[in-house]
Write a structure and sequence with these properties.
Layout (H helix, E strand, L loop, with lengths): L10 E8 L15 E5 L10 E5 L8 E12 L6 E5 L7 H12 L4 E4 L2
């Protein structure tokens, strides 16, 4: 988690590789939200740091916004940033509900500033 914590409260750029409405390449689900990664970062799994983009209801290819929270997986080494427009906010319950499609398979906690 120490690799993801410096992003809390910061403006970040997200490259979207799983657009809203797209199918997961290996698992049988559709993304109900835009999902991507922070370019030029490395998470413990060897890939870039992942991010969910909240508050955008159309497929996009990139997004710049504020990291308001981290989903810290307790049984996996792959944290997820929660990124949204500067003036938006989402409760822990909203974050859990929106990300349930993928996060239901992991034990996690939500970290904030």
């Amino acid at each position: 988690m120490e690799y993801s914590r410096p992003f809390l409260g910061k403006t970040v750029k997200v490259s979207i590789d799983r657009k809203l409405g797209s199918k997961h390449p290996k698992h049988d689900f559709t993304y109900p939200i835009n999902y991507g990664f922070i370019p030029d970062t490395t998470a413990p799994d060897g890939a870039e740091l992942d991010a969910y983009v909240f508050g955008v209801d159309v497929p996009i290819i990139e997004f710049e916004g504020k990291c308001i929270a981290i989903i810290h997986r307790l049984d996996d080494d792959d944290d997820k940033l929660i990124v949204c427009n500067e003036n938006e906010t989402f409760s822990d319950d909203q974050i859990k509900k929106i990300t349930h499609f993928q996060e239901q398979y992991f034990k996690s906690e939500i970290i904030r500033l």
